[in-house]
């Protein structure tokens, strides 16, 4: 959606061949993303959101099996709890937006909570860890995801 809602790039009059022109347009678009925070921040936030979500989805099953001896059923319980927390987080974000909280504050709080959750993953995903220490950072991240998107 962001791609289609971005303003068009300025047209340059370049008489070089089409491939060189495409390269220039690509570099111009990349420079616009980097130089304009109102464009770059959403791009980086969406990248961060998607990467973090996929990291948990990909990493939890083998990590939980190695650390806790879990199978697919126990991992599915965690994913089910994550979906409930994401729904809860969406309702909280919606309510806070209606109360007048700025998107900037919501995004920053989501990024801060997400960073705390991933630090928790880094420090608590090891063999023979207690279940609550393994699952809590995942659930913290789940509650932060609605604030990122």
What features would you describe in this structure?
- This protein is globular.
- The chain is built from six helices and no strands.
- The model has no long low-confidence stretch (mean pLDDT 83).
- It has 149 residues and is mainly alpha-helical.
Provide a concise account of the structure shown.
The chain has helices at residues 2-5, 18-35, 37-68, 72-98, 103-124, 131-148. It has 149 residues and is mostly helical.
Indicate the structural class: mainly alpha
How many DSSP E strands? 0
Strand content: under 5%
| Uncertain stretches | none
- The sequence of SSEs as H and E is HHHHHH
General shape: globular
Helix content: over 70%
User: Radius of gyration, Cα only, in angstroms?
Assistant: 20 Å
Biggest sheet layout: none
> In DSSP terms, counting alpha (H) and pi (I) runs of 4 or more, how many helices?
6
List the helices and strands and how they pair.
Layout: H1 2-5, H2 18-35, H3 37-68, H4 72-98, H5 103-124, H6 131-148
Helix pairs in contact: 2-3, 3-6, 4-6, 5-6
How would you describe this structure in keywords?
149 residues, single chain, 0% strand, 6 helices
